Amino acid sequence: MKRKEKAGRRRWAAAGIIGFAALMLAACNKDDELKNLIQDEEKEEKIVNLFSPMEKTDPDAENVARSAADLTIAMAEEELGVTVTYKTYTAEDYQDKTYDQVTLDRARNNMDDIYLLNPDVVQALGEEGKLMDLSGLECVENLREVIKTANTVDGKLVAIPQEVVAYGLFINKEMFDRYGLALPETPEEFLHCCEVFQENGIKTPVGANRWWLENFVFAQAYADLYNGGNTEAEIAALNSGEARYGDYMRPGFEFLKELMDRGYIDAEKALVSEAIEGEGEDFLSQKTPIVMAYWGAANTETAYGKTDFEMQVIGFPSSRGQMPVISMTGFGIGAEAEHGEDALAVLDIMLSDEALQIYSETNRVISPSENVSVECVPALKPLNKLIEEGVYVVGSNAGMKVEQWGNTCLIVRDLLGGATVDECMAAFDKLQDEALGIE
Questions:
Q1: How far apart are CA 123 and CA 400, in angstroms?
Q2: From CA 351, how far away is CA 226, in angstroms rounded?
Q3: I need a labelling partner for 294 at 20 to 30 A (CA). Which of 242, 317, 393, 401 fits?
Q4: Are strands 165-172 and 311-314 parallel, antiparallel or unpaired?
Q5: 392-418 burial, b for 16+ CB within 10 Å, e for fewer?
Q6: Which residue in 343, 328, 346 sits closest to 162, CA to CA?
Q7: How far is CA 406 from CA 268, 327, 394, in A?
Q8: Shortest CA distance to 84 belongs to which of 113, 126, 123?
Q9: Dist CA 350 CA 336 (whole Å)
């Protein structure tokens, strides 16, 4: 089937899913008793198994209002005549195991077809040869280059996300205006802003938690790597051991240490604080002018989507100015998936421009496709402008031999707990040597 014919069918499917959802919400309870009365028992049912942390209230329901991801899955089910069955993770089912641990186990034992993977798991399974190469899918033609770069392992595109997660600094613009401060571009300007805030009675200018301080590090470590026109060569040098991660990371860790030493960040509180829970209240009550969070937090009233002041979301300070940090989960398919061909077809539709437009508009997020964009809330416009211009660093890159996001987060926690910068750099050197087999 030609691409235009496929696109036409998807648009009709998408319109049907969304337009009929409202009617189905009222009628679904009545239809539940009737929908299974007529069945073609002789028709072979095509099944694709998907493992993810998402819950789906009724996997068999058609055209019912679902989450953004479910809407795209419904498009694939409609066009291909398949049923996508969910295998979901809940903490109580797996006791003390994390989602990543469970996913690794399931993928290594070929228990599912499609998996929603965090960056470190994409890298691990890709290196083990446990994931299919997705580069032949039609949807790949429209992907942003950063998506391909961040999800390619040993020359194979092993995962594709439905959204790009961008992190930035959430700023109380009114507090900056009150003290005549311009929004900071560089680390030096950021330190100056914190100094002025503290001089005016704001004890801790930066609200922090134990998860997201690594974004300060990534912005400074990789500003040149991802924006200097030499990305491929620099990553190759890191992967060969010619370049050292510690050299890249040191400026960011020294910057964090200075923020801690000056009291601009409460290290003890950050070390035990969960994301948003630890600093959100102070930011919303205008006791703290700066916090860090992900793109979606500006769209959600339960986070920072509704403030009593003007909020702007900007990039983290770097030598190249304000720098967004992006990360992403991704869908991958088991290399020996039982329903591999059907799974590939499902993923190709879920990640088509038509499906991603629905997903992006529903969740108001950044799409992995170059052809899909949505209007963002005013607070996000500064961050979005940078990303659309191609200015950002990648916090999770499966093409790097040392996993970035999780390892950097843990080493930043060591710094919060009292480790020296030199000790933190030694930890990076050790990780690099282990990854490259250097004794």
A1: 8
A2: 25
A3: 401
A4: antiparallel
A5: bbbbbbbbbbbbbbbbbbebbbebbee
A6: 328
A7: 20, 11, 13
A8: 113
A9: 21
pLDDT tens for residues 152-195? 998 999 999 999 989 999 999 999 999 999 999 999 999 999 99
Alpha helices by DSSP H, listed for 287-420, are 340-350, 353-363, 381-388, 405-416
In this predicted structure, what is the pLDDT of residue 219? 97
pLDDT over 60 at 382, yes or no: yes
Cα–Cα dist 313/56, whole Å: 32
Structure-token pair, residue 107: 């993928």
Rounded CA separation 149/153 (Å): 9
pLDDT digits (tens, 9 = 90+) for 26-64: 444 444 444 444 444 445 678 999 998 854 434 443 332
pLDDT at 325 over 90: yes
pTM of the model: 0.79
Q: How far apart are CA 263 and CA 259, in angstroms?
A: 6
Read off the pLDDT of each residue in 247-267 and give the average, rounded to a whole number: 96
Q: Please state, in angstroms and rounded to a whole number, the distance separating the CA atoms of residues 415 and 412.
A: 5
Structure tokens at 242: 């010619």
CA distance 389 to 210: 30
pLDDT on residue 40: 45
Backbone dihedral angles phi then psi of residue 271, each to the nearest 5 degrees: -60, -25
The DSSP-derived string for 163-213 is -BEEEEEEEEHHHHHHTTPPPP-SHHHHHHHHHHHHHTT-S--EE--TTTT
Note the pLDDT tens digit of each residue in 327-363: 888 999 999 999 999 999 999 999 999 999 999 988 8
Structural tokens at position 421? 């910068």
**End-to-end alpha carbon distance in the chain:** 54
Q: Would you state the structure tokens that stand for residue 420, as one six-digit string?
A: 């020296």
Pairing relation of β-strands 156-157 and 206-207? unpaired
Q: DSSP 3-state helix, strand, coil percentages of the chain (rounded to 5)?
A: 50, 15, 40
Q: How many whole angstroms separate alpha carbon 123 and alpha carbon 118?
A: 9
